[in-house]
Amino acid sequence: MSLRRTALVTGGGSGIGRAIALRLGADGFATAVLDLDAEAAERVAVEARDKGYEARAFGGVDVSDRGQVDAAVREVHDSLGPVLVLVNNAGLTGFKKFLHITDEIWDRMLAVNLSGPFYCAQAVVPDMVEAGWGRIVNISSSSAQSGQQFMTHYVASKAGLVGLTKALALELGPQGITVNTIPPGFVDTPMLRASEEHGLLGGTVDHHAELTPVRRPGRPEDIAAACAFLVSEEAGYVTGQVIGVNGGRNT
Ligand code: NAP
């Protein structure tokens, strides 16, 4: 990579987002670790700096709040430079029988998982257009490919993110900006373990790993590796794509 580029990773304080932030740091990006959980964001930024990477935490930012997103992106821009890579990773999960999904639950899911990426992309695309180069990676979910019972609101939000990816890729392609989505499946993170603990997985993580073609759960680093490729220079001809990373659980 010839010039220094800044990457913004939402939900960078935990799980998949943490792995992506550390990987992009290792690959030479100045990394903005944005998270609702300020302490978690700070921990990851410190971890990255301890490894010699350039990183800053932007904590206490809710991606579903456009004002907070715009203010945080301005701060990133001023401290780390124009944002040329955006990874929309922050997300909520949820399990509810369809008739138990209230308007509030539905609205919050859509606000975080779909409006959040919309606000973040609108905030950074002007930097990318000016540079004539940009990369957006949206972390959706394999459940948007397969469907998932008791997760209608979650799956609808992630399927919306797949649609956003495809449409935006067509619009931004002429300006040197690629937009892709990685739908992870069954990745061992605090989110997955919390679902296991609450008995919401229909079995343990180990049980599901045995049913997975590669016979293990995903690691956050598996998603980070795919993301690193998609934001690289050499991925310039890959856009509008759904790049599944799921151990063969969905094909
Ligand atoms: P995780 O460990 O729970 O990490 C998600 C991070 O995002 C947390 O630090 C969380 O902060 C933050 N966050 C949540 N809501 C936010 C908001 N409104 N604004 C800013 N930050 C927010 O989850 P993960 O498993 O790494 O998941 C990362 C992404 O992958 C999510 O979009 C998820 O839907 C997707 N995904 C994961 C799997 C899997 O198997 N793990 C499968 C399919 C898709 P708090 O802790 O404060 O909430």
UniProtKB/TrEMBL annotation:
The Ketoreductase domain covers 5-185
Membrane spanning stretches:
none
Q: Which PROSITE patterns match?
A: ADH_SHORT (PS00061)
Name the source's superkingdom: Bacteria
Q: Which residues form a coiled coil?
A: none
Instruction: Describe the family membership recorded for this protein in Swiss-Prot or TrEMBL.
Output: Belongs to the short-chain dehydrogenases/reductases (SDR) family.
Name used for this protein in its record:
SDR family oxidoreductase
